[in-house]
Design goal:
binds zinc ion; 22% strand; seven-stranded mixed β-sheet; three-stranded parallel β-sheet; 8 helices
């Protein structure tokens, strides 16, 4: 809520909260935010159960099923991540299409055909392969992060951006998100993702931070 206030925006104008999966970094503040902002939570059934959300607060949504809420069209997209029913979100509002996609272990099996004509892309670039390999995490955690139930590295993120940008002629902005504190670096992430993304030169690139709010524009 503080981050919304920092931006000079009205928390009560928030009409809904989308939760992609039940890991703590995504669900921790959801109940309180929902109460404070009087905004309903939307999540898949698996996420509601896995995150022990109250059915009074959380509305179930289904992967690949579009739902309309207060002028937003939202389609949850099934992704590979080590939770019950994780998803990314395709959000359409005011004629713009935005993909919000973090916490993806692999893009194999991801249905990219419906993810075209995007205006904005908010996509995970979680770690640098070498930094993760040589970093401080214990072996099991390194394996989890790099695995198909973990997170996209900068190269994989770039390859995904390349495909999505290629089928989105009006793409205006790309924001790299969910960067690891220990296993990535903003400048390196930007450089590596852009290298693998190829084109997308006229697009505005930004890196989202964990400790600050950001604006898609
Ligand atoms: Zn997660
Ligand atoms: Zn996460």
């Amino acid at each position: 809520v503080q981050r919304i206030l920092d931006r000079g925006l009205d928390p009560l104008a928030v009409c809904g909260i989308l939760i992609s999966h039940e890991h703590g970094d995504h669900i921790r503040g959801a109940r309180l935010c929902s109460q404070d902002m009087a905004a309903p939570i939307f999540a898949t059934k698996g996420t509601i159960e896995g995150g022990k959300l109250s059915p009074l607060q959380a509305n179930p949504i289904r992967c690949d099923e579009r739902m309309d809420h207060e002028g937003f069209n939202i389609t949850p997209i099934k992704v590979s991540h080590d939770t019950r029913e994780p998803c990314a979100f395709l959000v359409e509002a005011d004629g713009s299409r935005v993909l919000l996609a973090t916490d993806i272990g692999t893009t194999q099996g991801l249905d990219l055909t419906q993810l075209k004509d995007l205006d904005f892309l908010y996509v995970e670039a979680n770690h640098d392969e070498e930094m993760l390999k040589n970093g401080p995490y214990p072996y099991f955690l390194k394996k989890r992060i790099a695995g198909t139930g973990g997170h996209l590295n900068n190269r994989q993120s770039g390859e995904l951006v390349r495909t999505l940008a290629g089928q989105s002629p009006n793409l205006r902005g790309i924001m790299l998100a969910h960067l690891s504190d220990k296993n990535n670096d903003s400048a390196l992430a930007l450089e590596t993702v852009r290298k693998h993304a190829g084109a997308a030169e006229s697009v505005r690139w930004e890196v989202a931070r964990q400790d600050e709010s950001v604006e898609l524009k």
